[in-house]
Amino acid sequence: MIYENVIVERYALALFINMKRLSQVDEVSSEINYFFAQIQVNKSVEKLLLNKSAPKKAKMVFCNTLLGKIKISGLLRRFIVLLIEKKRLYLLKKIITALEKIIDKENNIQTLKLILAKQQDDGSLDKVKNELTKYFNSMSVKFNINYDNEILGGIIIKKDSLMLDLSFRSRIKEIKFLTNRRKFKINELGIT
Q: What pTM value is reported for the model?
């Protein structure tokens, strides 16, 4: 797994360096996402192309057919062919994610992951976004919003490996812990 992550990072960085060298960062970035979306349209094609053990020739035929239908740059075409030849096309989604992180870092964009219990009205969500954007005043902020009803309410904010848990679930656990601790101290003193 760690080895695979290193491979993904290297492919993403190599692609980014070439995108930047050719001044095609925005173009290739949108093309690679569109290409991946086209793969996902047909589940049988997706299963074939993203399968580690599928034959290279079959992948090449399907990719050439797909690439013939959509217009992409020569750089991306060569990159896709390279992934097929090296039997690494199954890593495409991870490479895209790593590439997006590299582009965001280059453009000084900070990504924050927000986890909410349920869908919020636009006004409430905009207030949270505005306050967080003010906090990161020197850089642009991009939000990745997910929903998890198990947090009961509140919000969890993640930035890279840091997390601020302001959910009701964590507050309830904290109260429960403190209550149990207090009971333990009272029992320890022999007070009933």
A: 0.69
